[in-house]
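#onboarding

Welcome to the new folks! Below is a worked example of what a typical request in this channel looks like: someone posts a single protein sequence, and someone else replies with the predicted structure as tokens. Don't worry about understanding the tokens yet, we'll cover that in week two.

Example request:
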Amino acid sequence: MHNPEFIAELRARGFEFLFDVNHLNAISLLEVIVFHREFNKRLLFHGLVHFVQQRILGLPTWLELYVRAVLKTGLHATIPIEVHAYELDGRFALNPAAAFSVQGEVQAWVDDGRY
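Example response:
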């Protein structure tokens, strides 16, 4: 898989710490999750958290928050959208049988301005 053209353009403008799509486990946009390797339940759950985030925030807002945070920190794993997805997939991995509302969790972060 190749990086989107805007990654090369941003690197040419001096942004050094941008992600490489080949190093991501998956990419979630709208109703599609593209996996770069064999997936497991936790990775699928993580992608579904992004799906819920995108539904609640709206894709344009989610993308803006994502890109702005990556440009600010330089590391996609430290941005709020990813931190929350990792937190929720970790909770799922610890006890897959324990039900909780991803929609409720995401909405709470939106309401608190945590993204």
